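Possible regression after last week's pipeline update?

I re-ran a chain I had predicted before the update to compare outputs. Posting the input and the new output here so someone can diff against the archived version. Not blocking, just want to make sure nothing changed silently.
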Amino acid sequence: MARWIRFILALAALHLSLPASAQLAASPWPKFQGNLLNTGTGAGIGTTNAVKWSRSFGAANPGNASPAIGVDGTVYIGCSDGTVSALNPVNGNLVWAFKASGAVQSTPAIGKDGTVYVGSSDDKVYALNGKTGALKWSFATGGMVTSSPAIGEDGTIYVGSFDHKVYALDGATGAPVWSYACGDVVASSPAVGSDGTVYVGSSDKSVYALDGSTGALDWSFATGKAVTSSPAIGADGTVYVGSQDKSLYALNGTSGLEVWSYTTGAAIYSSPAVGADGTVYIGSEDHTLYALIGGTGVLKWSYETTAAIDWSPAVGADGTVFVGSSDSHFYALSAAGSLVWSYASGGPLATAGAAIAADGSLYFSSTDAHLYALKSTYVAPTLTSLAVAPTTVTGGASVTGTVTLSGVTTFLGAVVTLSSSDPSVSVPTSITVAAGQTTATFTAQTSSISAQVAATMTASLSGTSKSAILTVNPPSITAVGLNPPVVPGGASTVGTVTLSGAAPSGGLKIALTSQYGSAAVVGSVTVPAGQDSANFLVTTSIVGFQEVSDITATFNGQSQSAILIEYPPALSGVTLNPATVNGGATSVGTVYISSPAPTGGISVTLASSNTGAKVPAFVLVAAGKSSATFNVTTVSVSAQQTATITGTLNSFSQKAVLTIQPVALQSVAFSPSTVAGGTTSTGTVTLAGVAPTGGLTVKLSSSLSSVTVPSSVKIAAGTATATFVAKTTGVTTQQVATITASLSGTSKTGTLTLTASTLATVSLKPASVKGGQSSTGTVTLSGPAPTGGLVVNLSSSLTGASVPVAVIVAGGKTSATFTVKTTAVGATTSSTITASVGTVTQSAVLTITH
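New output (post-update):
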């Protein structure tokens, strides 16, 4: 049995390497030599020389024809009278027959749809209905067709003819696709490579490789004589073919170059077979069957019969080699070349071949006009068990089922049908136990349910059934989560309930509860169908102290919980506005809490690190509010200071820093701001705040010598201003003095404008005199005369009233007098006395009487 298993596995691997023809029937032997590669390998094991049945065709001799096997086991064979017969594989009874006009030595090829393609000596290729034998189409070549058709991947039919041509025909219509002319008869049956290349021999001594799509020549190889042998293709693409020049050739399938050749003792009409291990088998007219190593051509063994072997060998799945000989015997040889058994027919076994069925039955024809069916010892395995793992799952999960047979299967394996007693468990309709295997696995998919189900899964094979029970549970709650799990009282959080599997149709309703009333949940949440989780909202109320609540989800008596922590409002910040003030000013502080205050409010304790910045002992954040304000009052300071303002709630503190600046100088001003030189003005220095204890001394300076100020002025404690006197001297032109006040490195300036003194008035006393008498004149300036005095020019409009040329107003003085002398006049008259300084003039009228 172990040897059989090895051969079956090797054969299965070989079948997997065959060209994937979409149109060739998936039967164990659908054409000449069993497959597109013409390897002659079969699926059956245990073939014996015991006859299951034989059918006599009488004059309609099938001796030169090979059988083919359909998907349903029907055996198809041609006869010398032109008949193509379809036979029942159980008893050999005729199912139908089709009569061509010439002998049928061509082996039928069976398409995927059951169509039977076959050639005839009446020069035609026929397409027949596989069920009825009815003609579908025929195509006439120019000569006999003994070549056996091959069916390409696209359904193209390839076949040779005695008219020297290889034809490619449309499988559906029989219309020619292309043809290739060789140099002589083409009796060889084409092999089709995995790339679609068509390989065929000709009596013109050559082997041809043709493009399957176009018929173009890829290469040709010349032997020494006619090639009626059909090529076989190895797993590595090597092409093996015999020639009547006595040699078997191994050719590179791509280039056509010779790899090796082996010479026998006589002509070769036999077509080679290639075993699963690569061994090449070929018969010869020298009575011998040869077994050669496929890679090298080295002889492994040979077996000699008593007559020519023109038969094409076949290889069973257990490695047994089957071959017919012209000595009328059909031989079964071991893989080592020893005789296993032989069967004597009533006539020579000529240029034909056998067909091996999946159950090991073997069919071959003889020139004694019989088709023989040989029995097999192979017993199809029975179903021994069905197991599932795991045996209990949550709905929505999948499990692995395993079917086990009593023994290994062959060829296409054993198809085990599957079923489930409950719709919540779905299984494939069938599972195939592969060739050479005793077990196969499949996946059973469960769907989500709301209540436990015990489903019975059943496997059946050939009337035997085995069962296994799968328990499917509804989803359970695996977890409850909260995001976030810690919240301030009054905030909400999102809860998530997670199931072990997807919810069934209609969803699953999960009950929800909370341990304390400060955390509220809805009564339930529904996990939607097909989902394994759902979210719900947890709302909380404001709390005065930390609370811990269990949020619980329950389904089918099973619960899961999550812990929610609610904390009271926390102090989240303290701010000051402004954060920098002058000493004596006030800043507004604000405390912030993380959530609205509960009923009654929350008191935040306040403290200051500096006695110069005072705060209340606490501030109350009103219920429902998240902040409150307070005042920070400061005192004047002589140097910059800082105060840390601290708010504390439930032992947790927040801080803010207040910077207290010393009082800054704000301004210097004069009243009046413009004075005549020599007069005074009152200056005022003003602070931005009040002076601290001890007062503040402000330094003073003047930019002009004509304006003098004290060196400093003191601002009394608690006041913001102080005054001083600015003294001036007379000036000849207008001047602007900058007065600078300095305090703690900062300065402010003010300006004082000095105007120059000029002539203001001229007066006479008395203003009327008798001629010959004098009057006193006075010139008055707008301000004190500058140092050195001020010269005032004088003139009179009447010679009888004389004045000095000028009068000098002494420095620092504002007036000077002069004398107006008159002479006697005959009549009352007047004189205008004029005084001038620069462009400024003033005048007075003196009346002189008689």
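Follow-up from reviewer: compared with the archived run. The helical segments are 2-17. Marking as no regression found.
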